[in-house]
Specification:
Arc Repressor Mutant, subunit A, three-stranded antiparallel beta sheet, 6 helices, Alpha-Beta Plaits, 2 domains, alpha+beta, about 190 residues
Length: about 190
């Protein structure tokens, strides 16, 4: 079965598994992904036991899912524990021949945490984080408006987030992501060398 999924799969820890591309996955792959949604820290042995398959099967499948870009790990913070002052949704109208280039440019900006082409009133929506309104202003004036193809923008400041708070604050990967890579090396790649 061929499916396209673009969903944040967030567990209770600081890591997220994100499914971002189209790929043929079977029932076992789907079950592995669902189990990782619940707890991305599970060992391959724990996953295997729940699926009634060998841990080597789980590690092989995880390796393929990661290698083919079906899943990837991203570290996230809890916003109530980190001082990020301003979250904004920036809606853009762009010339249609420039959508891909504008999206790529925005995706390369460290403030942009999520970028998507959309239907409806706007062509592109971006979720971004700033430490102040001045930083937002400098971003819009100095880096957003100069992007070729941007016709117009509308910025929405997020006053309160009821659901999805952990999505709002993707952090630097250094310590947390290195822990995840160590876990992947120990649990996924150990028998596949």
């Amino acid at each position: 079965m061929s499916i396209a999924i673009s969903v944040y799969l967030i567990n209770r820890t600081e890591y997220t598994i994100i499914i971002t591309c189209m790929y043929n996955i079977d029932e076992t792959d789907s079950k592995i992904i669902k189990l990782l949604e619940e707890n991305a820290w599970q060992t391959s042995e724990a996953l295997a036991k729940q699926l009634s398959v060998s841990s080597a099967t789980v590690r092989r499948r995880l390796k393929l899912l990661v290698k083919n870009g079906v899943i990837r790990a991203v570290a996230v913070t809890q916003p109530d524990r980190v001082d990020t002052s301003l979250c904004a949704i920036i809606a853009l109208n762009v010339s249609h021949q420039s959508i891909d280039e504008v999206m790529q440019t925005l995706a390369g900006q460290p403030e942009a945490k999520w970028v998507a082409a959309t239907t409806g009133r706007f062509d592109i929506l971006t979720l971004a984080e700033f430490n102040s309104t001045e930083e937002l202003f400098q971003f819009v004036r100095g880096r957003l408006f100069p992007i070729e193809g941007v016709k117009d923008s509308e910025t929405f400041g997020c006053l309160h987030v009821e659901k999805g708070k952990q999505i709002l604050s993707l952090i630097e990967w250094n310590t947390l992501f290195s822990r995840f890579l160590t876990w992947m090396r120990l649990n996924v790649y150990e028998d596949l060398s």
